[in-house]
């Protein structure tokens, strides 16, 4: 029996199964919070990624537990995978929605403490114009960023927009039905007037179901009512001022709740709430 035990023990080294979890490099980089999938692909193409000492290529697969993956000369350690972080920021005007601005302007990451800015892989999800303010998501979950920025998974976004002049009901209806921009009609939107300063300005609530570049500003300009101020109040059901809670101050951030994170992961199955309107005080 003792001899049999020795034989069985010797066999264990041959029969022990270690699963190989090969995944595409861009997916691994996204899971580690290094970059979104799209940015990861750009990094691979730029020669910034190596696997076992060799330059990586698009489509290549690897296993962080087995292979040595280097990003800009730094190894990915399986045991150092960052904890997922999900934040909502109230972006001020004049701050760019990037991790770093080549022109030296302040970025959204500059609004975070150093412990979140450095080493966590946090980045903005999508963009908000430098001249616009309001809700912006920040995370180090590259997989989630990939899904949320893909047109197929667009989440409605709500804005409060001051425009020059007083658009008529027919103008608002035209905006709702879609406007031609660069040869392509915009998707139907929800647009309603909240407040008017006769002959001067109007405050509109706009809910978009797509995210074309500077879409609200371009449509408003084309309709003859240029934007004066643009403020995003909500991303789906995620609001700067949740019901019964104080509003998130400009330049401040908060962690998302469990239900808000679940909404982002499963936006189709999560009901969109009606966003309460908090009219901005006009500057007469």
Automatic annotation (TrEMBL):
Residues 23-84 form the RNA-binding S4 domain. Belongs to the pseudouridine synthase RsuA family. GO terms for molecular function: RNA binding; rRNA pseudouridine synthase activity. Its EC number is 5.4.99.-. Pfam families: PseudoU_synth_2 (PF00849), S4 (PF01479). It is an enzyme of class 5 (isomerase). One of its GO terms (biological process) is enzyme-directed rRNA pseudouridine synthesis. It comes from the Bacteria. It comes from Planktothrix serta PCC 8927. This is Pseudouridine synthase. SMART domains: S4. Keywords: Isomerase, RNA-binding.
